Structure formats: C-alpha cells, structure tokens
Amino acid sequence: MAVNLRRIRHVKKMTQEELADGAGLSVRYVGAIERADVSASVTVLGRIAEALGVEATDLIKRTAVHPHRSR
C-alpha cells in the first residue's frame, strides 16, 4: 500500500499535508503509512482513497515488478 499511496499522491500532485487535510488525518500519520511504518485500518484506507479520488482497491493492488534485464 505504501508504494501505491505515494505513487498515486504524486500523480495527483498532492502534498502529504493536502492528503492529510482531505482525509482528516495527521501529516505524521500519512507519512508513517507511506514509509510502511504503520498499517492503515480499512476505515483509514477508505478516507485516504476518497481524499485521493480513487477506489480503495487502487491503493492495495499489487504492482507489477519488472525484473532488471541483462544487456
């Protein structure tokens, strides 16, 4: 979730402060979620998704890992 959250927030050009305000969370908590220092509850996940304007599933989808290719 941390990777998706940071990626989507950057795509939306939102600061952690803007996201925190929109989700009713503290900036420290949003930062901790992005660093994967803490896990977000389902309720918090929904609030973050709503603030970002995305579906909650977008935050928890596995992202494809592209292996490094030999040259």
Please estimate the helix content: 55-70%
Q: In this structure, how is the largest beta sheet organized? A: none
Low-confidence stretches: none
Spatial shape: globular
Compile the SSE list and pairings.
Blueprint: H1 2-11, H2 16-23, H3 27-34, H4 42-52, H5 56-60
Helix pairs in contact: 2-3, 2-4
In short:
The protein is built from five helices and no strands.
Task: Describe what you observe in this structure.
InterPro entries: Cro/C1-type_HTH, Lambda_DNA-bd_dom_sf, TransReg_Diox_bact_type. Residues 5-59 form the HTH cro/C1-type domain. Keywords: DNA-binding, Transcription, Transcription regulation. This protein is mainly α and 71 residues long. The protein is 59% helix and 0% strand. It contains five helices and no strands. Helix 2 (16-23) packs across helix 3. The protein is globular.
